[in-house]
Amino acid sequence: MPTGTRLSKSPHNTNPDSLLKLTDLCVMCGMCIPNCPTYQSHGMESESPRGRIALIQSYLRDQLHDIDHMKTHLQHCTGCLNCESICPSRVPYAEIYHTAAAQLFQTGKKPRRWLRFLLRLMARPGGLNRLTGLFKLLSRLPDYHYLVHGMSTTEPCSQSVSSVPGQSDIYLFVGCMEQALDATTLKHATDLLQACGYRVIAPLNQACCGSLHQHLGDSTTARQLAATSNTLFSQDIPVIFANAGCGAQLRQNLPEGKATDLLGFLSQALKSSRLRFTPREQEVSLHTSCSRRNKMSGSSDDLAQLLSIIPDLKTRPITSKPYCCGAGAAHRLSDPQQTAAIRQPLVEQLISTGENLLVSDNMNCTLNFREALSDTDIRVVHPVTLLWQQLERTSSSCDI
Ligand code: SF4
Ligand code: SF4
After folding, report:
1. What Å distances lie between residue 236 and 158, 169, 170, 257, 320, CA to CA?
2. Per-residue pLDDT tens for 342-367?
3. Domain check: are 30 and 93 in the same one?
4. Are residues 143 and 253 in the same domain?
5. Cβ 89 under 6 angstroms from ligand 1
6. 20 C-alpha vs ligand 2 centroid, how far in Å?
């Protein structure tokens, strides 16, 4: 007897028959497979987009005898959407995946207990932030330090910069993980925006954007977090995000045009400001997150464009297939071996360049690379940190 149940009520308003029709759009051509990081790492059809869609089809047709088999292979998916971006039949993989994951969640096939605890914590305003002391402790323990390796919670040195008199207000989305693990990037983003003359408003009670909840099937909490963001960011001003992973989700949650990419916004703001940057004769590597490439239609050009304001700086994208670093969703924590295998081609390309600075636009990827490169002298930073470092000011005492 099949152990599956037909989908009841879809969290994305996709009923079972509609969802089946969506999966039927897949013509099984396999063009997505070479770009799938989990297929590259596991080498199995059920670890590919085509294999996952086929499993979901069987589930919807009550033909699947082992739901746990499907659950395992869905849970390995990093959510990179390399598949969706290359598919010639325009199969909406994300919608198919999220609807199936939500159904599994509702039928009791939930993520592991510690992951559910993490989801609850992320959904609380400042939830993860309260655990900063624990993160610091874990980072010192050999068995656990990979969990939080590369966290940056220390306050960066603060210096006066020439500021244009106030122009307009903007919101800054600080999220959950980023507040707790990458406060330095948020501080540098705030400093640069203020230096461009903006008043930065970061409302209290911000929580997670909900992308991890959605990916793991907790669609109820994802919807609640979307509603919270809409309430918190109610003024008709841009909501700036520094982390591409959160940004892709915020663009789903907030009215069209409101969630604004820090990189593009700063590129424009810096051009019209009087701020100057000291030259840096160096070639740096650029890593563009899957969230930017596949969910925001961006590319490494976004990073290069922003950094082009630094005189003499040269940039070079790292491009080894499958592009994904494997850290998507919570894989860096839940499946560190898979993550290490997926990121290896990128790490090798990076080391082969001989450069010692990698710029990445996404916190999860940044922490992942910092962990992978911890035995090297290669540093990994967000573009705003590099800009902040090069900003002309009265004196300088911070180095990266
Ligand atoms: S998802 Fe698209 S690219 Fe992949 S097998 Fe199906 S039709 Fe082909
Ligand atoms: S989202 Fe990424 S990991 Fe998941 S099936 Fe598509 S290509 Fe593979």
Report:
1. 30, 10, 9, 11, 41
2. 999 999 999 998 989 999 999 889 98
3. yes
4. yes
5. yes
6. 19
